[in-house]
Amino acid sequence: MDFKNSEKLYKKGLKHLVGAVNSPVRAFASVGGNPLFIKKAKGTVITDVDGNDYIDYVLSYGPMILGHRHKKVEKAIKKALKNGYTFGASTKNEIKLAKIVCDAFPGMDKVRFVNSGTEAVLSALRLARAYTGNDKIIKFAGCYHGHSDALLVAAGSGLVTLSLPGSKGVPEGAVKNTLIANYNDLESVKAHFEKHDDIAGVIIEPIAGNMGVVLPQGNFLKELKAYLETKNALLIVDEVMTGFRSKFGGAQELLGVEADITCLGKVIGGGFPVGAYGARNEIMEMVSPLGAMYQAGTLSGNPIAMAAGIATLTELKKQNPYQKFDEIAARLEQMLREKANKHGVDIVVNRYGSMINPFFKRGVVTNFEEAQESDTKKFAVFFWELVKNGIFLPPSQFEAWFLSSALSEKDLEQTENAIDKAMEAVAKQ
Ligand SMILES: *Cc1c(COP(=O)(O)O)cnc(C)c1O
């Protein structure tokens, strides 16, 4: 397998693109080497510019849940294209997608479509503040909620209580209202409420996927929600990754919790830029034009994106692949454990629904601190050996692998062989 064309494009890309990418995880910074340039994808297979085929467990970081270029989605997009691309006025399909979304999430009477997960979350925070009249928000270390100022707070273990900005260019004023708690630790949430009486709400990834997969332990979410009710603070559930992925009704359906405000993205656009936030009427009526919280977007509810979203969600509901996802993830877990065992490599495997990943360490991973104990050098070896054996996975120890409903028995067999070789390479390292 060679990567000559990717290498050429990377060098060329460096001139006018920052790091030759438009999103930093694509840069392969933590695994080293040259990022792959992709030419095309179909079903479970993604093909790079050198003609190498890979089984795709990145799926554009989640959206392509049916696999690439599903027939029905492609047909809907082509049909929509013929009517024009964007109008700056409402269309029938926005109402249709809104109904599909609100029917799936019982806590949502109304929804507002935006263009990305980042936008959904930053609008949800504004809404929580508008509704409660309070400014402070609690987030959990290791959870990612997009790149808006208020949520780019350093999440390293030593900084957990300090709320330091995690990026240059974020003014301290922008994060002074962001408080950090520990995932799976209700006491760390309560401690903030004991000190502050102006907390609007808590934002959480209900199943964390941005520090690797980390599961809520026991009834953590239910207990968090019950506690927040006693404090008149809102539970903002960031389902940008888990919405329509954990279950059709997201992690909320899987875990039996109802958010006050829900954020969506990724799957909802079927591969096009769509995000959404929604809540019960009383809360959503704060949003302009009904209420005094302003939020707008030139391309929001874009007709092509709505068509892709409707077709994806309609097909997803019909396929109902959630049982299949669980079975495939169970097999992947078994493969990872078996091959790691065979070659004497320490790993922890976390999975929930169609999100799974191995951490190269012993013990357990229930929060950011434990995730960070992983051996990222071992991961880098593992990553490249999988790539060379035809498996495309996120180039970071701290990203979830995603499953699509198109995965076949043959794909899984190829994956198993590749994992065997990759664990062997890790052991030899
Ligand atoms: C991907 C993601 C976001 C950001 O969405 P973008 O579309 O990349 O802006 C926010 N929250 C979670 C949980 C995500 O996984």
Automatic annotation (TrEMBL):
Its EC number is 5.4.3.8. Coiled coil: none annotated. InterPro entries: 4pyrrol_synth_GluAld_NH2Trfase (IPR004639), Aminotrans_3 (IPR005814), PyrdxlP-dep_Trfase (IPR015424), PyrdxlP-dep_Trfase_major (IPR015421), PyrdxlP-dep_Trfase_small (IPR015422). It is an enzyme of class 5 (isomerase). It holds the Pfam family Aminotran_3. GO terms for molecular function: glutamate-1-semialdehyde 2,1-aminomutase activity. The modification N6-(pyridoxal phosphate)lysine is found at K266. The keyword tRNA processing does not apply. Belongs to the class-III pyridoxal-phosphate-dependent aminotransferase family. HemL subfamily. Homodimer. This is Glutamate-1-semialdehyde 2,1-aminomutase.
